[in-house]
Specification:
- There is one protein chain.
- By secondary structure, this protein is of the alpha+beta class.
- It has 23 helices and 20 strands.
- The strands form 3 sheets. Strands 1, 2, 3, 4, 5, 6 and 7 form a 7-stranded antiparallel β-sheet that branches.
- Helix 5 crosses helix 10.
- The longest helix is centred in the C-terminal third of the chain and has 37 residues.
Length: about 625
């Protein structure tokens, strides 16, 4: 029966809310006190059932929890016929538990989504030399595995034969596929976009980089939240103190009603509702402004953050490579652009897509005799012309002379962090394009606003090369920049910073970011990122608008301040009421109840101010 009642807490909370509404309606509208009292009595009895069970379970292990205090206070309120107080206290207590449980469920679902992304099978070479599909757990170190176009890499290993482009976004977070050939290292969970390769397994199962990502998320989520620790400390001292006060009052006065009154006054509705109303109002404001905040501990931690660490791709940058610089040489450029578009239209490589998007509408010709030059580019015949599209090495192979101006342009484009694509027509250089991921519009200004809000350190961690990361950091005025980092290295850096006493917020958008999102004091995911990153995080910027990050920081600071104000109001009222009960003749249950209702009204109004918050 206990398990059944605890399993129906959410339904009990809903029914209690409905009964309380019915009770107030019958009192103020119908003026039917019988219906009012019975509605509130039933709401009190239903609401106290799961709380009393939790109190009993706590007492069995010699813990005087806040459930014990609430149970005694509610029972006392019912005995002295204060049904309104008993009903409201039980509802608010259950509703707070419901909000906490929802947050926990969202966090746990991230582990399941990560596990679902892990490869389940692999093509393993058997003793007869043939490849057969086997369960991933049947793969051992040293085995030879076959991976075809579109398949996931099943283990961490080394390419033995073949070549292709691999999407490593799940590990490094970078959007541009990486070319792999014999001797290249590959990671489990990444995708072979084209080509066929054979790899030798080095790390399998939980030892792979992807497996360690899952393990890091689990470890980080096992740690106890600050809110839970606060509740433990609060219950440890506050609950026994109020119970002791009630007993002392009874022993000295022999007045049961006076003792119960003390317990009721010592369990203020304003304290129960003060923090939730601030949270709900602040979370509502955030939702309307593109920010999803996941719980009170999130608000508390984020409001105190002094170090914000960013992933680069998809966070500080847009996440899709675009043509950032271009230069033309000689005549007939329109025709050359048409030839380039004709060649690149046949490729699904992200750089090719960026070029086609940049050129836009043009004359498309038939492409013949295409030849892929490994590591250099493509050569093809288009409309009777020999078209070479690739890097500087391909230009040398095609005997395309680069003028002094072209060489200077190449150096300048490279210095700006571009990937270079050169196009030659019949051995003559015509087009130079520099392609790179673009910084999100307005990011620099928003980062300056974050500094004004008290953030001392702005750091970027990326799997991209150090040169590109340094360029982004320099452009945005960041404090530190670290490139060539795998997920475990990012997590190690976060732990190192935390050990120095800094409160860390991490902003990312990919599967590879999920360990860092979970490990940081506050994890922030861009809404355009992966589901796992969003589930693992504490804050989600739902529209991937960077200005929402600054709004979120300012909002959490206001929520945190508002919660403290409400706590001071609630505890202040309790102190005044108890002092009045003990040291004056004017304090009674009616005055105490009126003061409680007024304090509840005050903290609700104070919390609702957050609905109008603007940075």
């Amino acid at each position: 029966m206990q398990r059944y009642i605890l399993g129906k807490k959410n339904q009990i909370t809903l029914i209690s809310a409905i009964l309380i509404i019915v009770g107030f309606y019958s009192h103020f509208v119908l003026n039917n006190m019988t219906l009012t009292n019975w509605s509130l009595i039933i709401a009190s009895l239903l609401g106290i059932a799961p709380i009393a069970i939790q109190a009993y379970q706590a007492l069995k292990v010699k813990v005087v929890s806040i459930d014990v205090l609430v149970t005694i206070a509610v029972v006392g309120a019912v005995l002295i016929k204060n049904y309104e107080e008993s009903a409201i206290v039980t509802f608010l207590f259950l509703f707070g538990a419901y909000l906490e449980q929802r947050t926990l469920n969202k966090t746990r679902s991230a582990i399941r989504e990560l596990t679902d992304l892990a490869p389940e099978t692999a093509m393993k070479q058997m003793e007869n030399g043939e490849f057969e599909e086997v369960d991933i757990y049947d793969v051992d170190e040293g085995d030879t595995l076959l991976v075809r176009t579109g398949a996931s890499i099943p283990v961490d290993g080394i390419v033995m034969t073949g070549d292709g482009h691999i999407d490593e976004a799940s590990i490094t977070g970078e959007s541009v596929p990486v070319s792999k050939g014999p001797g290249s290292k590959v990671f489990a969970g990444t995708i072979l976009e084209n080509g066929t390769i054979q790899i030798e397994a080095e790390l399998v199962g939980e030892d792979t980089t992807f497996g360690r990502i899952i393990e890091l998320v689990e470890d980080a989520q096992d740690s106890k939240s600050e809110a839970e620790r606060f509740i433990d400390r609060f219950s440890k001292y506050y609950t026994p103190a109020v119970l002791g006060l009630g007993i002392i009052i009874f022993l000295f006065s022999q007045n049961v009603e006076l003792a119960i009154t003390a317990l009721v006054l010592g369990c203020p509705g304003a304290l129960v509702i003060g923090v939730p109303v601030s949270n709900v109002s602040g979370i509502g404001n955030g939702a309307r402004n593109g920010v999803l905040l996941k719980g009170s501990e999130v608000i508390s931690d984020f409001s105190r953050a002094d170090t914000v660490i960013f992933d680069k791709t998809g966070t500080l940058t847009i996440g899709n490579p675009e043509v950032a610089d271009k230069q033309f040489y000689g005549e007939n450029i329109e025709a050359a652009l048409g030839f380039l578009a004709s060649v690149e239209r046949e490729s699904d490589h992200p750089l090719a897509k960026a070029i086609v998007n940049e050129i836009g509408e043009t004359t498309i010709s038939i492409v013949e005799e295409t030849e892929v030059i490994k590591g250099e580019g493509i050569v093809a015949n288009v409309a009777g012309h020999r078209i070479a599209v690739g890097n500087v090495a391909l230009m040398k192979r095609e005997n395309a002379v680069l003028s002094n101006q072209a060489r200077e342009d190449v150096k300048r484009f490279e210095k700006n962090g571009n990937s270079l694509v050169l196009t030659a027509v019949d051995g003559e250089l015509k087009i130079l394009m520099g392609i790179r991921d673009q910084v999100r519009p307005g990011v620099k200004e928003e980062l300056q606003n974050m500094k004004k809000l008290g953030v001392k350190n702005l750091v970027v961690l990326s799997g991209d090369n150090q040169g590109t990361v340094d360029l982004v950091a320099s452009e945005l005025g960041l404090t530190e920049a670290h490139g060539n980092m795998l997920p475990e290295e990012k997590s190690a850096y976060i732990e190192e910073v935390q050990e120095k006493g800094q409160i860390v917020a991490f902003v990312g958008d990919g599967v590879n970011d999920s360990p860092s999102l979970a490990l940081a004091d506050i994890g922030i995911a861009m809404g355009s990122g992966t589901d796992v990153a969003i589930e693992t995080s504490d804050v989600v910027l739902m529209k991937s608008n960077f200005s929402h990050l600054t709004h979120a920081l300012g909002l959490t600071k206001s929520i945190s301040s508002n919660m403290k104000q409400n706590i001071v109001i609630a505890i202040g009222v309790v102190v005044i009421l108890l002092a009045g009960l003990l040291f004056s003749d004017w304090m009674n249950m009616s005055i105490g109840m009126l003061a409680h209702e007024l304090s509840i009204f005050v903290v609700i109004l104070n919390g609702m101010r957050l609905l109008r918050y603007r940075l």
